[in-house]
Write a structure and sequence with these properties.
single chain; 289 residues; Chitinase A, domain 3; seven-stranded antiparallel β-sheet; 7 strands; 49% helix
């Protein structure tokens, strides 16, 4: 049996594996590789002893058919199994050990199991993917991200949107001579939607600066995008930049006067703007009164 190797080591988690049976080192999984695995001897515990598995895991819960597409998992334990698989060779059998702790160093989850990588469908590196394949992957991750948001899994949704955006970036530079106008508009529309979706995720965790930057990027491509204006308004409010927030919400209402969310946000902002105007009037009066 080989020595145990560390796949990842952080304060909140540690991922290790020990090879029992080596595999074919010439066949290893890459992004989007289709893997067939077998899990055995699964044991899960926490500080109190034996416990239930992470409920959102697909790999460690039934029904699991043994098929894993690298880069297509959402639950944190499944993504960590992906990391292990990318350090395995086809035919390899190993003992995997995944340990998770909270910020105080208390054990939250400890998983050990045997993983056998039965088969790997060899794939190209992303740098060698075709334009069409990158586009298909971007749309897949975007749609999965939308589903994660519907399931109230904001962090997982943001991760999916980020992966979709990376696929769009990998498609550049796009040859404008061979790209028809309709497809060019479609790519811009997807980019704007991804910026908006990532901004929404950042707002959920009060990351107002990051949300502001994403909304500005969206508005650069589509200055009249009401979602981007509304979310940038929210970011400005979080940063206590009420005048800028007021300007954005007024622009949104000028584009769609009947939007209920924008109307409500304008009503919430009005007292702040009235106070700012009164304070400004007092200053002017003192200076020139």
């Amino acid at each position: 049996m080989h020595r145990e190797s560390i796949i990842c080591c952080r304060r909140d988690r540690e991922i290790r594996k020990k090879i029992i049976t080596p595999g074919d080192y010439t066949i290893v999984p890459y992004e989007d590789s289709r893997c067939k695995i077998r899990l055995t001897d699964v044991y899960c515990k926490n500080a109190d002893g034996v416990c239930e598995m992470e409920p959102l895991s697909r790999i460690f819960n039934s029904p699991f058919d043994g098929n894993v597409i690298i880069g297509d998992m959402d639950a944190f334990v499944d993504r960590d199994v992906e990391l292990i698989l990318q350090q395995m060779c086809c035919g390899e059998l190993c003992i995997a050990h995944l340990t998770y702790k909270n910020t105080h160093g208390d054990l939250m989850l400890d998983i050990t199991c045997k993983i056998e990588l039965l088969d790997v469908t060899e794939e190209q590196l992303i740098s060698d993917w075709s334009w069409a394949r990158l586009y298909e992957s971007a749309m897949h991750h975007k749609e999965r991200g939308v589903q994660m948001i519907k399931d109230k899994r904001t962090v997982d949704g943001f991760r999916r949107f980020s992966k979709a955006y990376k696929m769009l970036v990998a498609m550049e530079p796009v040859d404008k001579d061979t790209l028809d106008e309709e497809r060019a508009k479609e790519l811009i529309d997807i980019r704007v939607k991804l910026y908006n979706n990532m901004a929404h995720c950042q707002l959920q965790f009060e990351e107002f600066g990051a949300s502001l930057e994403l909304c500005c990027r969206a508005l650069k491509y589509d200055p009249e995008n009401t979602k981007a204006l509304y979310r940038r308004c929210m970011a400005y409010i979080g940063l206590h930049m009420y005048e800028e927030a007021w300007e954005d919400i007024q622009k949104a209402l000028a584009i769609d006067p009947n939007d209920k969310a924008s109307q409500l946000k304008a009503s919430e902002l009005r007292p702040h703007i009235e106070k700012i105007n009164k304070d400004y009037a007092k200053v002017i009066k003192k200076m020139f009164g």
